[in-house]
Amino acid sequence: MTTSPPAPRTPTIAARATELSKVYGQGDTRVVALDRVSVGFGQSQFTAIMGPSGSGKSTLMHCVAGLDSFSSGSVRVGDVELGALTDRQLTKLRRDKVGFIFQAFNLLPTLTALENITLPMDLAGRTPDKEWLDSVIQMVGLSGRLTHRPAQLSGGQQQRVAVARALASQPEIVFGDEPTGNLDSRAGSEVLGFLRDSVRTLGQTVVMVTHDPVAAAYADRVVFLADGRIVDEMYEPTADAVRELMKSSDAPGFRTS
Q1: Among residues 62, 71, 81, 138, which is most buried (max CB within 10 A)?
Q2: Would you state the pLDDT for residue 5?
């Protein structure tokens, strides 16, 4: 069904899943988390993935990000096929090409904000690009907090550090798993604004899992899952349009109150 304006010109694809399936268990305990999903994520585009609990949205993100294995199908990040990689090669790909923003921040309490931001590059033996790093820090408004440790920062500031950490290594794609789930509405809006600005100003590619129509409205595109399958998508979303689609969808398990 048509629920949004026509899709814009197709961008270069930063990551793609093709006929992707993920199955847990066997026999009576068999659960199909993803059922032959095919979807691409465009470069310099902000995509939100939505769906009810158990729809497969987090599983899809984890498989495309190289955090979880898949049962069949194909995943590519750039021109790299994930299914052909060894564990060591997957670790290198995640370190060099992918950024992550988690709901729980995942900051080290003994390190300063700046040390947390540069930690992945320090572990990889890489020197940060100072101009890029300064741009990221300025964008998320952390210039006056770089010497503070996480305990000295608010929840919103800690998530800003997590956003900056994900962006600092100039990854090909950044994944966010409910990145504003632990924040109040004001702090959440700030973090979502930073992610949107990273796409528009820095040319970053962002894929975010969320259950919140307001958060999804910051994205350029929303992909909707239900029962392990893509059931719809929307470009130039608004919170009201997302809510309306979720209420009116006839996909099993997708309708919300």
Answers
A1: 62
A2: 59
